[in-house]
Amino acid sequence: MKRAILSLVAVGLCLGLLARDKFIDSKSFTEWKKGDVMKLLSDSPWAKQQTYAHQIAGKGSGVGGEKELFNQYTIRFFSALPVRHAYLRMMQMMNNYDSMGADQKLAFDQKMSSSPLMVGFGDEIIVAGEFATNNRQHQMDADRRLKQVTASEFKQSVYLISDRLGQIQIKGYFPPSPDGSGFKFVFPRTVDGKPVISPEDKEVTFRWWFDNEIILTFKVKDMMYNGKVEF
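Request: output the structure for the sequence above.
Response:
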């Protein structure tokens, strides 16, 4: 069973890579479908997931009858333009943008024009995260901790690791936001005048310890969007 699941995951990842050009590179983000948006936010050059699972032994298993408990971490480069476009598209769909008249679309676009989703985050890299588990008590505990923890407490457990610059510490942290975009780690975009991520890099790695060790590697050459590396 486990081998079958791994095979399905591998096939899904391969299909995802093949499908990348179809909506990321060829379409305007205003044409993205819901599935395109969800894929970009969970399994794309700018977003990845890591899951830890273990079997539950004993009669009846978990509280809800689960045979397996999982902790799933989703990490995405929130400041990357395609991710921001994905959130903008999500907001468009939630507000029935596609069925609006020209004047209504213009008013919506003007309203969003000053949002960080449009103008960016200046000299900062924003890495957003989400945590999910099928252990209800653990979820409640994690949500509480993520709301209460401070940036200084994350200094020794959250890093971006650059090919050229090594470990980059966070400079800020924002707890989970009401809009559903998750908690956010803030990193500098440059260190000593050098970009944290550069086209010459092969990859950049996000590393975090939160009950489990999360290590997710992003291929820089795949993080191209509109002709430039986006992060």
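Residues 28-229 form one domain.
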